[in-house]
Amino acid sequence: METEKRRLQTEAALSEGELNFQLLADSIPQLAWMAHSDGWIFWYNRRWYDYTGTTLDEMKGWGWRKVHHPDHVDRVVARVQRSWETGEPWEDTFPLKSREGHWRWFLSRALPVKGQDGEVVRWFGTNTDITELREHQQAADEAREQLATAIEAISEGFAIHDPAD
Predict the structure, then answer these.
(1) I want to staple 25 with a disulfide (CB 3.0 to 4.6 A). Which of 45, 73, 117, 159 is the partner?
(2) Residue 54 Cα distances to 11, 22, 58, 64, 65, angstroms
(3) What tens digit of pLDDT does each residue of 32-62 get?
(4) Displacement of CA 59 from its chain's centroid (Å)
(5) DSSP classification of residue 159
(6) Is 29 exposed, middle or buried (0-12, 13-18, 19+ CB in 10 A)?
């Protein structure tokens, strides 16, 4: 009787923990995912599906490549595969396609989750939308270039030229 009571309490605690995790994962602003130790993705948060307009059946395993920009997908696959083989954390930036067909830039990170023996048991990853940050950085770079050009033009205008030149 006491064993059954403990089992029910354990199941209730696990169920509550899963619910809390799902609520947390679905409320963060990032797209999130989990993969087995070999990189086979088995879970995404609600934001992933809302952004991409996909389903788990479409995305599980290596299906995520379908929403990656074709100019970047081979590089991303090679780099993440290397992390999955070595167990090293992974980070990269690339565009992902939205459900509407628009491309936005994401900073993606994945950390290995290790068991007691130190072996990777799964990966937890996030994709953070950095599109506006990239646009602001590009605008700042362009403004710096324009300023440097203007300063150079002004400097040349004020340059004192030797009449002998």
Answers:
(1) 45
(2) 31, 18, 6, 9, 12
(3) 999 999 999 999 999 999 999 999 999 999 9
(4) 15
(5) P
(6) exposed
